[in-house]
Design brief:
By secondary structure, this protein is an alpha/beta fold. 30% of the residues lie in helices and 34% in strands. The strands form two sheets. A seven-stranded mixed sheet has the order 3-2-1-4-5-11-10, sandwiched between helices. It has a four-stranded antiparallel sheet with strand order 6-7-8-9. α6 packs across α8. It binds S-adenosylmethionine. S-adenosylmethionine (SAM) binds next to β2.
Length: 259
């Protein structure tokens, strides 16, 4: 059967991410402190939600993309006893969704730059408000985002860059990723085009293209979103170990509490 483009892009998302960025340990540590249930907005293929469910927490994951959710379901099904049962995957928009059990979550997160995908500053604020609306009193919200420096942004001039060549363990095919990023300072956004080409020697190659618009955020904006949503900032950190946010930090990690 021919693979649909959205399913191929979901598979290639996992191949692209590869290594653990380090955020799972933070979420597991916070879940140990708060208990579940856990809400993940923009859950994708379940990279974080599945190990959280495997650790015993009830996890709800929300995502707009049904192909990402299908892949999360499939992986959860193969992840061992009880994992799929502890997971609920909901196709909905992180900016507007209000689940029937809103107000009961002990931990809620928008991990790994997904806040960039929410569109505009107002949409990012709306997604943080969704976290707040789902938390129980004393529940914890987490949002983290990459902080590109001037050098990073100066390279985002639309040029094509060969990012990697890998073998997909699921298909045995060689995959090449080429990307192009263009930064627009007037909207603090980056237009990202990603091209995956895959195939076997001697076969016709298949090409998958996705475009995303990333609206960057500053640490101050994350604090403003949290406060506007009625959350109290517990820490504004520079890494997943919750070390201080110092000048030149590559990442901001917001941890905020519902009073
Ligand atoms: C970079 S992936 C992150 C997946 C996962 N959280 C992780 O850390 O591996 C971003 C996900 O955000 C989803 N997404 C983008 N905009 C969204 C929105 N408005 N509401 C819900 N999901 C959204 C995409 O479909 C995609 O699956």
């Amino acid at each position: 059967m021919t693979e649909a483009p959205a399913a191929a892009l979901a598979r290639l998302y996992d191949l692209d991410l590869g290594e653990d960025p380090g955020d799972l340990d933070l979420l597991l540590a916070l879940a140990t402190r708060t208990g579940g249930p856990v809400l993940e907005l923009a859950v994708g293929t379940g990279r974080l939600a599945i190990p959280l469910a495997a650790a015993g927490y009830d996890v709800t994951g929300v995502d707009l993309d049904p192909a990402m959710l299908d892949r999360a379901r499939l992986t959860a099904g193969g992840a061992g006893k009880g994992v799929a049962r502890r997971m609920r995957l909901v196709e909905d928009d992180a900016r507007t969704v209000r689940l029937p059990d809103a107000g009961s979550y002990r931990l809620a997160a928008i991990p790994l730059n997904s806040i960039f995908l929410m569109g505009s500053r107002a949409d990012q604020a709306a997604a943080v408000a969704t976290l707040a609306a789902h938390l129980a009193p004393e529940g914890i919200a987490v949002v983290d985002a990459w902080l590109p420096d001037a050098d990073d942004l100066s390279r985002y001039d639309g040029r094509l860059v060969l990012e990697w060549v890998r073998t997909d363990p699921e298909t045995g095919r060689t995959v090449t990723k080429v990307g192009s990023a263009a930064y627009d300072p007037t909207t603090a956004s980056v237009r990202l085009t990603t091209i995956f080409e895959e195939g076997m020697p001697g076969e016709p190659a298949r090409r998958w293209v996705r475009t995303d618009r990333l609206r960057l955020v500053t640490p101050d904006e994350l604090v403003a979103f949290a406060e506007a949503a009625g959350l109290e900032v517990e820490s504004l950190a520079g890494d997943y170990e919750l070390g201080p946010l110092e000048p030149g930090a590559e990442r901001v990690v917001l941890v905020a509490r519902r009073p």
